Amino acid sequence: MALRTEELMLNMGPQHPSTHGVLRLVVTLDGENVMDVQPDIGYLHSSVEKMMEHRTYVQNVALVDRGMDYLIALNNEQAYCLAVEQLAGIVTPERARYIRVIFDELNRIASHLVWLGTWAIDLGATTVFLWCFREREMILDLFEKVTGGRLHHVYYRLGGVYADLPEGWVEECGAFLDYFLTRVDEYETLLTKNPIFLARTKGVGTISRADAIAMGASGPVARASGVAYDVRKAAPYEVYDRMEFNVPVLTDGDCYARYLVRLTEMRESVRILRQALLNLPGGEIRARVPMTMKAPRGEIYVHTESPRGDLGIYLVSDGGETPYRVKIRAPSFSNLYALTEMMKGWKIADVIAILGSIDIVLSDVDR
Amino acid sequence: MDVSNRFHGLLALPIDPETGKDLCIICFQCERICPDRCIHIEAEGKGKERVLTRFDIEMDKCCYCGYCVEVCPTEAIVFVPHYEASTYNRDQLLYNLDDLHRAAPKEPIARGIIGGRVP
Ligand code: SF4
Ligand code: SF4
Predict the structure, then answer these.
(1) Which residue of B has its CA nearest to A291?
(2) Contact B80, B104 (CB under 8 A)
(3) CA angle B106, B29, B38 (to 5 degrees)
(4) Which of residues 43-62 of A touch B (CB under 8 A)?
(5) Structure confidence by residue, pLDDT tens digits, A319-358
(6) Does A151 fall in a domain?
(7) Which ligand is nearest to the CA of B97?
(8) Range of the domain at A258
(9) What is the ipTM of this complex?
(10) Which of A2, A270, A296, B61 is most buried by its number of CB atoms within 10 A?
C-alpha cells in the first residue's frame, strides 16, 4: 500500500532567533526538501521615508542612522549626506572626505564582524562569534572616542563631520588595523578549512550570475556570483577614486563564496583605511551650512556601497526646509528576494545557513 | 565604566559657578533643532530679568543625537557620562529644570570638543 504524502507549510519566524530581526519565512516542505520559500516582511516597519518628510534636512541625519539599517549607521549617514550635498551643491572639505572614508570602512568591518559571528553561531561555531565581537568592541571604542556614540553616531553633517579626530586617534586606529589583520587569519583557522563548515556551506544555496542580476542583488551576494560591481569603483564618491583596493569577485555563488568575499573585503577595507590614515590631510572638517538649510527645488539619486550592497537615496525637494519625498533603495530588500531563488531544492536544515549568508538586516528591508 | 569625554550620555544643565545662575540665554535654538521635539522651554520677563520658568526634556523621546548640545551658543546644555536612565515609570523620564541641574557633573566638563562648530 502506498503511503499518502502531502506538502507541509511551515512558518519560520517572525520570532525565530536565526532570522536576524523579525522576518517570517513561509517554507513549503516536501519531507525535508524545501519546495518554495516566501519571505513575509513588514514586522519592523518604521516608515522612515515618511518621517523624513516631516523633519528638516539637518534633523534627518539623526533619523537615517537608526531608521534604516541599524548596524551601519555611518554608511547610512554617508548616503544621505551625499544626496543632500549634491542636491544643494555643498562642497565638503578634503579632510572631512577622508574622515568619512575612514569611518565608512571601519563600519564596514564592524558590520561584517557581526555577520560573521552571528552566521557562524547559526551554524554551530560559537567561538567565532566570541572572537568577532571582541574585535568589534574595539571598533566601537574607536567610534566612541570620536563620535560619542557606539551604534548611533549622528557624526556626519551636511558639508562635513561634527568633530575632529582627537589626539592620538590615528595612531590608535593604525595599531588596531595591524592587530586586526592577525585576527582575520585567526577566524580563517576556525572556518575556512573546517570540514563541517565546508559541508554546510560549499555548494549550498547557489545563485547564478544571471539570476543575481535579475533579482537586483548587490554587494557581496552579487560579487560571490561573479558580478564584478562595486559602487566604490563604478561611481566613486568621497575619495574612493584615490584609494587602491581590489574588489573580490568569485563565481561559485554559494554560501562559501559569500563568506570568502566578505572576508577578503575586510582585508581590503584595512588597505583602504591604511591609505586614508596615511594621506589624511589637515584643514577644515566642515563647510558652512546653516542649521536651517533649504535645498533648491529638484531631485537627485545618489548611491553608495554599504556593507550589504548598493544603498541608494532618491530625494525630491520642493525648495523647502524638509524633503518633499525620500525613497531609499535598500540593499537588504533586493538581496532578500534573491533568497527565494537560492533556497529551492535544499533541505530544511540549510535554510538557516542560506539565510544567514546573505546578511540582511530587517530594519533595512522594511524601512 | 569609563567612557570617552564625548560620550552621549544623559543631558544636563550645569550652573555657572561664578554667578550661580543658569548659563542658558533662552534662545530656543535647542528646542527648535531637536529632531524628536522633546525639549520644552518657557521663560518670563524681559531683557536681563528674563528667567527660565520651564526647561523640560523628555528623556524617553530623546535620541541622544547631540544637536541641542551642538547649537547651544553658551554650552548651557551638555552631555554627561552617566547613561543608566532606566526607571519603572515613564513619568520619571521627564526631566525638569531641577533634575537637569542635579544631573550636571560636579567636576568641570570637557568643553570645546565640538571642533566643527559653525562659528
Ligand atoms: S540629544 Fe537630540 S533628541 Fe535629545 S534633546 Fe538633544 S536634540 Fe533632542
Ligand atoms: S540653546 Fe542653549 S542657551 Fe539656547 S535655549 Fe537651549 S540651552 Fe538655552
Answers:
(1) B33
(2) yes
(3) 75
(4) 55, 58-62
(5) 888 999 999 998 988 888 888 888 888 888 888 888 888 8
(6) yes
(7) 2
(8) 57-322
(9) 0.83
(10) A270
The answer to whether the Cβ–Cβ distance between B116 and A59 falls below 8 Å is no
Residue A104 located in a structural domain: yes
Q: Is the CB of B14 under 6 A from ligand 2?
A: no
Q: Residue A104's domain is classified under what CATH number?
A: 1.10.645.10
In a domain, A359, yes or no: no
Does pLDDT of A318 surpass 50?
A: yes
Instruction: Please answer whether residues A236 and A302 qualify as being in contact, where contact means their C-beta atoms are separated by less than 8 angstroms.
Output: no
CB spacing of B7 vs A286 below 8 angstroms: no
Domain count, chain A: 1
B26 lines ligand 1 (CB under 6 A): no
Angle, helices A348-357 vs A331-343, to 10°: value is: 150
Task: Give distance in angstroms: CA of A313 to centre of ligand 1.
Answer: 25
Using a CB-CB cut-off of 8 Å, the residues of chain A touching B6 are 144-148, 163, 166
Q: How many CB atoms lie within 10 A of CB A40?
A: 13
Q: How confident is the model at residue A105 (pLDDT cuts 50, 70, 90)?
A: very high
Whether A269 maps to a domain, the answer reads yes
Instruction: Tell which residue, A56, A8, A7, has the closest CA to residue A294.
Output: A56
**Is the Cβ pair B35, A161 closer than 8 Å?**
no
Q: pTM (2 decimals)?
A: 0.89
